[in-house]
## 1
Amino acid sequence: MLFRRKSKTNRFIYSYLLLDCLPINSISPLAMNLRLHLLFIFLLLGGPLAWGQRFTLEGRVFDATTQVPIQNASVLVRVIEVTVKTDSLGRFKLTLGGKAMHALVITAEGYRTAYYPNVVLMGDGNMEVPLKTFAQDLDEVTVRERKADQNVRDVRMGTVQLNIQKLKRIPVVLGEPDILKALTLQPGVSTVGEGAGGLNVRGGRTDQNLVLLDGAPLFNTSHLLGFFANVNPDVVQSVTLYKGGIPAMYGGRLSALLNMTTKTGDAEQMRISGGVGPISSRLMIEGPLLKNKITYALGARVAYPNWIIRRLPERYRGSEAFFYDLNGRVQYRINDRHSVSLSSYRSLDNFKFSVEDTAYNWVSQTAGFQWNSLLSKRLSFSINGIYSNFKSDINGQQRANEFQVSSAIAHRELRTDWLYSLEKVRLEAGANYIWHEVQPGLQTPSSDSSNIIVRSAQTEFALEWAAYLQSEWTVSNALTLQAGVRYVNYQNVGARNVATYEPDLPRSIESIISTQDIPMGQVIDRYGGWEPRASLRLALGRQSSVKLSYNRTRQFLHLISNTTAISPVDFWKLSDSYTPPQLADQIAIGFFKNLKENAFETSVEVFYKDIKNLVEYKDGATLLLNPRIETDLLPAKGVAYGAEFSVQKTQGKLTGQVAYTYSRSLVQVQTPFAGERINNGEWYAATFDRPHNLAISLQQLLSTGVFLGFNFVYTTGRPATFPDGQYRLFNSVVPNFSRRNDDRIPDYIRADLSLSIDTRKVRTQKKYSVWNISLYNLLGRPNPYSIYFTRFNTVMRGYRLSVFARIIPSVTYNFYF
Amino acid sequence: MKNTSRFFVFLFLSMLLNACVEEVNLPLRDPEPQLVVEGLLSNDPVPYEVKLSYTGVFASGRFLPSRLAVNGALVSISDDKGVRTVLEQDFLEPGTYRTADPNFVGVVGRTYSVTIVTPDEKKYVSRPERLNAVPPINRLYAEFAERTRTRPDGYEIYIDTQDPAESQNYYRWTAYGFSNRPCGNPYAWVPFFSRGINIFDDRNINGKEVKRRNVLFSAMYGSGFHFIEVAQYAMSREAYQFWQLYNEQLNRTGSILDPLPAPIKGNVVNADNPDDIALGYFQVSGIARRKLKITPDTKFSQAYVTDRSAPFVTGVSGLCNNSQESAPRGWE
């Protein structure tokens, strides 16, 4: 296997260097080029040697195909067990004893491990480490893919790195590989229901996740009202979810950071790949515009659910549904020190329901510019310009009442990030500036004969700047400390008409004392402050460690939504005089232990999160187009806590993860006015509070390229409000719902099975295809999606609604040319 | 618009052809009985009525079981000028109290409040509400509507009214009618009522006409007369919100895009404990009424008689409920 693809370089040299050989299949041919480099070091610097002398070894880890630097790759020196991480430019630095023979292991999520068993330094040296992605590795399971014990040795905790390649191997709904759905199999990540958009991370709301695509925030992550994620997994290079210990570099959301980067394109040749599924098809083209200098990657996905609708009963026939998403990225590698890239993304959905004469559209767009630069061996920086917007429209087509209601949010950001690395200390610093603009709602008549008048909620403007400093200090082999602080300042500015309310009355239109017109650009309120972020790792022997983390986060943007799941009538709102920023403090402690030479990774993490200024809604609130929306909002307190247990098997023919989470998420609304309190001001369960959560995800290699995937999910039913009594009003029997979220819908249990077939005979094969055959909800269990109550004549009856009440089979075909 | 969102999920569920809905038993909790107030004061002629009951289990909305009626309460209505009138209980109708003073008539612009002392000595007072003026119904008209799968041929009844531009207006409509149907020989008069809560706020059309507001459907079971009366109410914002919640509650489909269920908080509160809020509402409204008489239309009734063997004529439950042989009073 090692020499399957005959290297042009001299095999004698390798043989010479590989004296004490390791399992032969763990060495990639590309790694050999490195050994050649090292040989050069050996030869060039091979002057008089001194025992005990120490030299510096610097290196760069990058994607073998795309030449993109790989951040956060681990470089482990065996025996002395020192690990260093690569920075955002893929660089690392080690100080090693001279003359001694060192073994280096370089690992990165999603890439094959590179192993250099015989590194001998005769002086300061440089090395280039190209890593190959798993995609090109057919026999990856026989490769010990995660030799490095990253989960034990990394100071970070509460992070999940998703292997994009595995997405095509796990069972999917209706043939759509889905990044967000795959993340819900991780401990501490859940969703409010089947087919609901967004993620709830460690008891946080869906709007509390900072979702970044190439640095640009996404304000909506769903296609088809939440059935699918709106990021095409084909174009995504890496996915990292931070459930806690969010780096000081990032801010603006309370609960989590989901960082996705897209591919920059193959540097060598043009490649076409794609897929066909029952709901949508995907296509991706990538390649060099100028070999090894300029690369591009373009991805597209288009859905065709309309053909299903045409098979529906007559009353649905006029309905329409459609979505697409596009990604594009161009990278120009000017030289070894500088590269620039441009990226853009667009996602569109529309949906029309014939019976109601209403059509919905929503569009997300991003554009970004990035300049990465390496000033010296120690110092590098990047500058980013980011634009992102989200627009949604509701179009009413009822005769004489045609209207359009649109809402929009725009984000314009400039940021710079600097990295200075010393031997044992890494310093990161940077600053950013954001201009926020939100139109929560604008209603216009959409025909001349329409009776609808123009009406709008006030447009909101705010500026936000932040600066941060973070250092990672490897105190000793046993102790690593990461400490950072972020200072953020937020100002909402005019033009705006601000109302002042009678202080002793609940806020309402009637309790307005006066109103004031704030001119354009004038600061209305200032919020912000320090956000400390800290992590600590203490090793307990080679295979286990204890980690601690604390972080404070603020959020100035709120998704206004009075429904259980994200819906198309939701809109965003900025913090203002009556809606202070949400503030969260999270503390977490974890124990990590690897067994059987890292074949099993186990962890326990316990977290506690305290949240202030959550946005809640008065009963019967009017949210859309409300020019004084503060009269319908209530401040709430939140608390979330839990314990996450995970066992992961990363080697062998059977791989997978078993994750169990116990967590709670509670809310309290206390106001001086009794009529506004929810549940009389007592703590109650958040709508997505699901205490028990078990997820098993396994992949079994059956034969070359053939995988059997299995998922099992068990979660407690989400809270719901059931009627507790009835009364009679105006000749109708009315259910009374006196206690919010005091009941629960039944538990959720699901198992899925999939078979994926990779047609490659050898791993270097360029043209091949991958089939995924999925059986979703194998048990055919009608899992309750909601319980609701309807009058039947005058009697209240309860009904249970299930979304996927049967087995959902699907077949997806993926091709690579 | 609000109701739209929940249809989404339904569409999708059907689209996937795998969704299912099953009936489940209600896991009802058994909380303490709460006071329920239903009252209306208007510029209509006296008497005005307040009904008091407790929460419990009901077999039907039409009748109030006597064990859940609140009898022996002290009920009074007062206005902002200090005029107060005590309501008398109707002992034939459990839990029903009526004004007795023929001079106590609702006046536009005044503010009214109800005070209730229950038999267990709890005092509830409603937040005062202003009796708002209501614009007249400018036009009341009927349009023939062909049968659908869920209803027979009939007339859709619409109103037009001019919304005043200078104020925020909240409307509610109720309607009832009599239609002459083949119940007996020759025909009999059958009363029918508007269903559901028909409310509207003028935010989207302020100052323009409320046009083609559908207030009633009058089913055509024969070629007789249809008598319709529509009442248009002016409500406070609070009352409007109350009805809006009431409507949402009765029309939930169980989608997670439905607004979260919540207690429908009314305007009657325990004077000694602000956390004890009675259910129901004491509504104060200006009312405008208008009548419409639909004469038999040969064209439609001919079509009805000859071409259409309407499945609705025979075996329709309630077709002849409460029918009377003589024409209703006030319509001759």
Note: The radius of gyration of chain A is 28 Å.
## 2
Amino acid sequence: MKDAYLKEKRILLVDDEQELLNMVVSILKAEGFRNVATAKTMEEALASALAFQPELAVLDVMLPDGDGFSLMKPLKEKGEYPILFLTARGEDDDKFRGFGLGADDYVIKPFLPKELIFRILAILRRSYREENPRVKLHDSEIDFDRAEVLKGGEHIPLTAKEHDILACLYRNAGRIVTIDALCEAAWGENPFGYENSLMAHIRRIREKIEGDPSRPVSLITVKGLGYKLIAD
Amino acid sequence: MKSMPKLIRRFVGILLLSFLLLLVLNFTLLIVFTLRQTPNARPWKMAEDVARALTQTEDGAYVLPDDILLELENSNAWGILIADSTMQVVWQTDNLPETVPTSYTLSAIAALTRGYIDGYPTFTGERENGLVVLGYPKDSFWKHIWPSWDYYTIANLPKTILCVLVINMTLIFLIYVIANSKLLKSVRPIVEGIRNLPTGETVHLQETGVLSEIAANINRTFDILKAQQYQLRKKETARANWIAGVSHDIRTPLSMVMGYAGQLKEDTGLPGEARQKAAVIVKQSERMKNLINDLNLASKLEYNMQPIHPARENMITIVRQVVVDFMNLDIDEKHPIIWETDEALTACPVNVDKELIKRALSNLIQNSIRHNERGYRIYVSVASESKTCKVEIYDDGIGASDEQLEKLNHAPHYMVCDENTTHQRHGLGLLIVKQIIAAHGGETAIGHSPYGGFSVTLILPTAD
């Protein structure tokens, strides 16, 4: 299981509804998360944050003794870890307010278990990297720390742009990433007009990671839309 | 205040026109009256005629021809002839009043030439050896006793008349301007007030001066407008808040329904039939979720309570992201999406609220998925056409009849319809798409797809 180390992370759930807490706990347990603590109020959450030392907090926006936004600040003061909001308010302002204060993501109620799990895993993967993460592909392995590809016993170095593009694809492994998102990952905001450069980089990455670059199996093109990385 | 100078120009114009008309009128009247009155010079001429026509017969008596005599009688005038040598009356008409003297002195002659004899206006005509005097009925003529004027007065008469006219006109003009500027001064705030009424700016006029009543009425009108606006806004806000509240309160219980049903659906320890049932619950709760999201957004858009944050975006990036999000969710490719955008087109800049446009596009793809069985394809294309960005989403599914399309394109949705709502119309999804696109100054057209299914075209103005 490539995300096994993520399932060890300590997750603190804060919601005023016991039933909802029970459900989220059961979803997390079913997925293999073992260290989950819950709190129903801001006070409990702060106490628990000290004792439990969470590595991710999932907060409801509406709490009996305050709101999730005002809880975020003291939580962040006690330790640097990501925060995901669960909100029943889908409105724009809440969303922006959350992000402005440093929230990492939000999930609007109601949600499907796999949606919540996907978001939690994505945040954890972003925040906690595996020790020497080697990504196994069909014909090669990527070592992101050293920025190199191992293919047939050979060490092939990756350029900075190639590294950024591959890292973005790996964060969304198994899912299509749009051309625009890849350009943004490599060239930053307002990445207009880099489509051709991106194609050139993809071609070079394929030469490094694929067994047969003309018939790619790890870095798939989705015509006109984007690319998908298939990791083992 | 564009209308004020216009008003002043109009006033002055009317004033000048009045002057001109007055002059024309007065001259006309003068001419008419002069024509109608007995000419001044007639009695003098008559006297001369008589003097010429009087003939002396052999016996020394004087005779006047009958026609002139008749003329004198018609004017009720009498006549005498005073002889130069004797200063005695030597001829007279039959109707001579008794009070008229028969002998004269030089001073009497001078007096009657200028004035009257016993109240009868008299006129003289010279003859070789005497003076003919005609007397007209009393009060038929008025005579100027001192018939002389200062020479310069007469010489400067045209100038004097012009001067007087100019002074008169200037005075009237001044009076007019002062009176009007006072009026304009009181009209100005009223015009300003009326101009501000539709803008919603606060209107409060001073209720003084000539037009105080109008000012007061404008103030009342503004108060009424404001009160009505406030009431309407309050109602709309209450309705939108109510919908927002209900949808908020439904979200948490629905989370639990969806969460547990989702878990049961994935639970391999359960019999297939039970998992199938759980899948139906998941699907239906997702419909409910979409419904409350749609209801909330539709009501906010309808009552202008949804903030719109437009920014310069590449439409292709937005559409691509939405399509990819759907593809990433639909792992087993139940509804393949085909990207039909020309690869040469890499950017289509638009000024839009990204989240709202994403919502509109998601609704359209969602619609195609919901209305078609698995296996049907959904096509998405973006094109740039003469200052517009055209996004088309169409499928090869069951489509809609012309009649249905007509309804979708033109019939108002029950949410925004103030008439009967007994017929349930189409879902909220399309209404939201229309609302969002309209809020961005664009157009939504619903039609047939080239592959036989349903097609929706969104046309948005490009950012320059």
Note: Chain A has a mean pLDDT of 86.
## 3
Amino acid sequence: MAQKSTFGPREAPTLGSPSRALFGKMLKEAQLSVAERDFILEALRENVRLDGRGPDQFRSLNLSFGNEYGHVKLQVGKTSIVVRISAEVTKPRDDRPFDGLFNINLELSAMGSPAWENGRSNDLEAYVTHVLDSVIRRSNALDTESLCILKGVSCWSIRADVHVLDYDGNLTDAACIAIMTGLRHFRRPDAVVRDGQVIVYGVEERVPVALNITHNPLSVTFNAFNEGNNIIVDATRKEEQASEGELVIGINNGGDVCFLSKFSGAPLDAMEVVTKSNVALEKVKEINTKVDKIMQVDLARRAKLGMADESRAENDR
Amino acid sequence: MVEPTASLSTLNRADGSASYKCPATGYDVLGSVNAPIELPARRDALKPEDATIEVFVKPGNTTAGVGERYVEGILRSVLTEVVLGRERGYPRRGVVITLAIVGGGSVERGDSYLTVLPALLHTSLLALLSASVPLAMTFSSALLGVTKSGDIVRDPSAADAKAASSLHVLAFSSKGHLLLNESEGCFDFDTWELIRERAVSICRGAAVSGTGEDVAMGERSNDARLDGFVRETVEDRLHVDYAWKIESN
């Protein structure tokens, strides 16, 4: 800072400030070559995608569960994600004494892509966190009031940790599916209030309870190409790089749109937004059915292992 | 003793990766290595002839805190000795090791981080091997706990570790040298000597344990040795990778 005064008044603040220079260059994903970009665009003009999918087709969804409840491994094509849900008892916020806490935590590490730096956030991280927050947290998919144990004194704090293991495009939708699946799969320990004392029962003492999920919203990301003539879902990393703009729609099984955004890129026809929200609804229904089926199989397997009561808990309400 | 399981090169984007599961402690660790990678800021000024090793530990369901920073420091100092950072292509470049604890219990705030350390060490070694980073040696590491009654237990569970009077993590290089010694709690030199002998027999088998004739009867057989486990994992992977070549011979 002392150095700055010696430059005098003529030093324009816009010309590379010293703090900027200290950060040096940022790591970046390898760029698409011109030929590769042209190839993707030309192929899309003929309605062909690099991996042979249709424009409204997701990559294959591979879902599995870990040993604990709420431990989800999801693969969408080559994008691979692990989500872990955890719960702990804390004090509720002073302005919301009846509400529990719910947080989504996404931290991109060098594991997912060499272009991401450990311990430093980047644009993608901020963007995905924002979408996830809007689609899942702010749409009240998890009923936070049901997490209250004793008004103003103690409540559950639910935490979803997203680990990106492999990044090959469409992080938002994949993370959305994984978090929602995790929340539905998770069981928290039972807690009761007796004489003003909060008692948390261990998993062995009492059947753990499922979270109260109000609806199942998922995000569907559309990528536009060739002046909005080609719009596709579930873009791979290469397709994302060649894309001219994207549209994100968060929608649930009932067709309620809870999030819609067009952050940047080329403009899109208003009619497209309407038609694409229909496509999004269809996709969300399709994915939710698929997830349900896999989750039922897993819960049935757990039931066989002598935990019959726990797997039934979700439908008891 | 249930052996740990591991597989190499499980990820697509990272240069090298390994997943490691230790059934005794329950930890499931995924490691990735990116090397050699260009460092974004000028962090190479201090050692222009050597590679910079960066270790990042990502806990499963909490935000990284002092515990992670502490264990990262230990890992960095061990791995700096192991990686040949002066080989062609490595000076002034980074070796970025990312370790995510994706399964099993998490280390509670204030609990000892030593319980995860062997799993983290093995994962990073396997990931480095998978990324073909030049190494001076391989190593194996063991976690031992001393109970209140003075018994030495191998791989104590989280609850046992909490109750233990002292915890020890020792690592031995493939040449048999003591590479790392981290201890926590109260113990005397005689106990430590017993611990060392036990750790040698776990990591390296009885052949090199020298004086320790009456310790660790269970770990005598060669296939139960931990350095053998690292070797076998890499052998299995090579067998798969070079199937085309082996078939044609």
Note: Chain A touches chain B through 34 residues (CB under 8 Å).
## 4
Amino acid sequence: MVSLLSPLDRKLLRDLWRIKGQASAIAVVIALGVMTLVMMTGIVNTLEETRTAYYDRYRLADIFAPVERAPERTLERLAELPGVSAVESRVTGMALVEIAEELIPIRAQAVSLPEHGPAWLNDIFLAEGRMPNPDRADEVLLLKGFADARELRPGARLSATMNGARRNFHVTGLAQSPEFLYTTAPGELIPDDARFAVLWMSQDTLAAAYDMQGAFNEALVALERGASEAAVLDAVDHVLDPLGGLGAYGLADQQSNFFISEEINGARSTSVSVPPIFLGVSAFLLYIVINRIVQAEREEIGLLKAFGYTDWEVSAHYLKLMLVIAIGGAIFGSGLGIVSGRAMAGVYQEYYKFPFLVFELEPRSFVLGLAISIISACAGGFGVLRGVFRLSPAVAMRPPAPADYSRTGHAAGLSRRLLDQPGRMVLRRLQRQPGRMFGAAIGIATGMALSVGMIGVQVGFNQTIELSFSVLDRSDAQITFTHAMSDKVIYELARLPGVEEVEPVRYVSVLLRHDFHDHRGAINGQLSEPRLARAMDNKQRPLPLPEQGIVLSTTLARVLDASPGDTITAEIREGRRPVLYLPVVAVADSLLGSPAYMHIDALNGALNEPGRVSGAYLRIDEDAAESVFRAVRDMPGVAGIGLKQDMRNSIQSIMDSGMGAMRFIMLGIAGIVTFGIVYNSARIAYAERARDLASLRVIGFSRAEAAFVLLGELGLITLTALPLGALMGYGMAALVSAAFSTEVYSIPLMFDAHTVGTAALAVLVSAALSGWLVKRDLDRIELVSALKTRE
Amino acid sequence: MPKPSDTKALPAFRTAGLTKTYGTGKAAVHALRGVDLEVPSGELVVLLGPSGSGKSTLLNILGGLDRATSGDAYFTDHELTAMADKELTLYRRDHVGFVFQFYNLMPSLTAEENVELVTEIAHNPMDPGKALDLVGLGERRHHFPAQLSGGEQQRVAIARAIAKQPDVLFCDEPTGALDSTTGRAVLKVLADVNAALGTTVLMVTHAAATAAMAHRVIHFADGAIRDVVPNASRLAPEQIEW
């Protein structure tokens, strides 16, 4: 070993060992920055690759074309359309499933299975049990997600009401499908495994139930490579329109795919914006610390030069020291990123119900992480190493001149009376090197800003739920009807004992267009001044719905790039399918989904269907809830009841188990980084003052009195950092909340006293802990040896 | 710790069988191997000896900076070897002044403020200005260390050490970093302080010639006292050949 390493390299190893505490603190901060990058990009890649592979393997269609009733032979016409590579027909219909423990029936979609062999398109993955026997009309497959949520296994029995007739079924197996990664009951915003079922059964059985013998009501189309989706959509609509086509749509508008895409998009935007913040903070810290380490080695540098080492040799030596820390941190972080990425991908595989996982890291993330670490280490070093070139070797051979404080001025008047000598020592040091002190304050402020951003996001998630379910929606339950009904039903509901308030709502599915943007969704027709489900502006004032025009949610306004005053086109996909030109009258601050609101009479008027409702919001006396549900269940035309509490729970679970869960990990990392920065600042201050402090101890200062000089400085820097951190935190919070927002939920920018206070508290606790750690070292200081060394 | 009632009557320091060992086992270094010593109050004592002979170790133990491995050490009637850390701090604060080779001034405080650093916490300090006058630096009281020469910095350090009117002054190579003229000036200040204030002075040095100004010279070798030589006739610092 001795022969392999030059004396300088041995010095390097011993120096590293000497500063091991600080070196590992820096390396850990870098590692965490690199880890978030590697982990997040790895998760995004893995989810995308897995989704693509899943879609390919089970041949998910590119186009879905619902139609009222099309004869089988229509399929041939679809297959002949240019750009179409495969077609499949199926029968599908809505059903209500009753299971033993549930009072309220659960909405379900029944989907036909081909008579022979696997489906050409939208195949399923049989996870458990066996396929239904095509000759048995009472055998079904059940969606595994629902079965798991309801603890149903193959062999279970259930009854379902389809097209008004009740039938009993025997579950032969559980299936998964790329089409139903997420399931949402019609009219509901939030996917929930437990509240929507999918049943697969033989085509014959379904055709009989829905009166579709020799016909289908949904066509699935796969595109040839390079074919234009828009052109094929138009062509398919052209074929199906005369048969009651309900509007073909592409995969992007398919509900399950939309949700999973939004999750992946959210992960991608988080992975693009958050890790660079962490990495940037780490880089900044590395810069400051390396700068100071080299500064402290000034004398040794002079000595090395006196021995005849060239400037470049000396620089290379210190550069190596920095690179060992930076590269070590980056490699450690990459390892952490791989391990945590794999673990998280496993969690997400379970959560998104992929039958398999294609784990794929992003190679660029390693290179990027390493490059940023190296560049910031070098940048930190170079500024100081320029001083190396200027330093004359003779400087190191003389006793050091004391730092010159003459320009800080003399204590006179007030400061002389108010400040004792230790107080003046603290103040003069800050005065003499304001740049360095400010740098330290900025470092701590950056850590605090990171915490402000991550805490703000936690509060933002809670705010989204709180605002959506307590302020915007004040109902207890939401009823959906199988079809638009006469508004008399509202009076019937209002008469039920226990129902305190009823509010009608009309949903209409629609394609909204503005300029080149479009969005497939629904318009909610509501009363002009609803009391239960309200649209509100960003100051939480209710927005009344005028007789004319449309109110867009913030998310929708962004998607359509529309603002009040613009006119948007609404192609209604129901009834006589009118096309409306609607002025945007206001933008509502909705945090869930991307709803659009109209006055119910205006909407019904446009459809030429006056007095129709498709659902109702209810406020219910809690004690009478059960009797209300029983009564509602027995009313004709009721498709389902959604309890607000259930919806609240399911969005909470999506936020806490899906991509939103990343916020917890990142909060933890932000905390560690913040502490790392504060601790490093304390360590540096201690290293720079050790000799002065020992001198104070020698001349009779107690431990506490000597510690005051050190901790006073740290305290002042920390206090300076707090307002700076709050200021920088505002920008950070805006960045982070935007990164976590998706079209499914928006995270508002939460920059309030609570957020800033919590972050400030984290900084203060870090400072107190760091102060305690360095004070412990100060208490153990070897007085004699500290005095023998020069400076 | 109460001020001794009659410090002059008791010897300033007494030690019996004092040892100091660094490390253990084969790596053990015996810095002191049983030192028995008496230093009368009010004397200027010079400790001479080669590097590693134990003189600085003894100074550090008597100054309350380090602890003995075994044996007893007394300052007047106080047992230093029995003191807890806090008591040692109070001992240094109330009774001891230090002067070091590298001055150890606070660069961020002026000459006067460096002295005030001590007078603020001492029981019976002299006026900081007077202490600086004593070392001949009254005119430069508002200068920061960076604006003073090495000799001047060392004189500030001496002023800082005597300003509390300590019972003893410990000097570890006080002239080690100074040229001969400046060194002589510093020695003169120490001799003056000893004569004028009656402060016991213990000085560790390599410069054998310095011994001529002492009341008593203690020679160290291999962690033990080789001999103690009282000076029948002392030289003034100005007369010392460097």
Note: The first helix of chain B runs from residue 55 to 62.
